[in-house]
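Regression report. Comparing outputs from two consecutive submissions.

Submission 1:
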Amino acid sequence: MGPARGSRDPVRAGPPLRMTDGQRARVDLPLLDGGDEGAARSDGHQHELAHLHPVPHLCTIQIAQLQQARLLVEYAAFNAARAGVVQNGNDGSDGTAGPMHDAAALSLLSGQGPTDGLAALARTWAGFRAREAMLRAIGLPLVQVFVLNPRRGDFRRFGQHLDGQEIDFDDVRPQAVDASLLSIQVRYLVELRVPLANKLIHSLWLASRARRGKQGLDDGAPGDLDLASLLLAGRQGRYLLPLQAFHTLRMQSNAFLRWAAP
């Protein structure tokens, strides 16, 4: 029930309520209490964020460079296969020399340095070969090509008329057509160059392999890659990760037994 007629509501009709200076001070003081300590904590957090802030950005840049390198490896595998189909599947002695290796290496040069002009291309190629020789000395081929097909067993079946040493690339027998396809795998050790991010990504990758009890790369290639060598290179400031790509083309020359897959 509201107030009686003629009476005044003390809340509505009374003078507006105002805090005295003492009351205002008592209300404001708890808000200001510990202000210096809170500001110090805030400054500390901002200082930590200032140190952590670049790492995600650096990792993003490094991963983008890895993606670019992966595309180059795909291109390198295509060019290596193109060289192989007209060179009898020649992958050299162990995939680190020969026309397919050189075609793959040349395809990767744009990620190694300037290639705009013959002089720049020659300098980048020389630097690439020097790095390749240095890494090979510790058991790390920079670029390696593996032949996955043709296989040695097929030469006895489809190359009898050539003493089992070759397979005709234009043999029209259905099974011989598949046997004469050139399938290759290209492995490339890309170097991580972005500071902080390179060591972080390299360490995480090695740790993930170690947790699975892997001593080698075990990527299905005929030649395994020793992870201890990658760790050694990392301790020397060279953070390397293996990238791989596959490609298949029809042979345009007879496949030779000496370069066939096991």
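Submission 2:
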Amino acid sequence: MMMADDGKGALKRELVFAALLVATGVAISMLSLGQLGAGQQIAQATQPTQSTPGAETKPSAPPEPATTGQRPREIPPQPARPDPEAQKQGAQPALPPAPAEKVAPPIREK
């Protein structure tokens, strides 16, 4: 019977100690946040830029181009591998040749 009471007392002490550590961590965090917000100002390294004379009358950016969401039809898509006739005429492939496929013998069942 005495052993069970000792185990409960140890658990209670550990829980109190854990709560004390959490409370200490929260207190330190609050103090740190208070120091950060206590009126520190960040120095600006360069002077702010001045507006260009007449900037009020000029547009700030060009208008967005109107897009239809469709692919342009003037430029047909090019194949990654030109046909042999085009290669004879000097067309270079867009991609290097693919590595050879490695084939192993079939797995024999035991």
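Expected: both submissions complete independently.
Actual: both completed, but the second showed a warning that disappeared on reload.
Relevant detail on submission 2: The chain has a mean pLDDT of 78.
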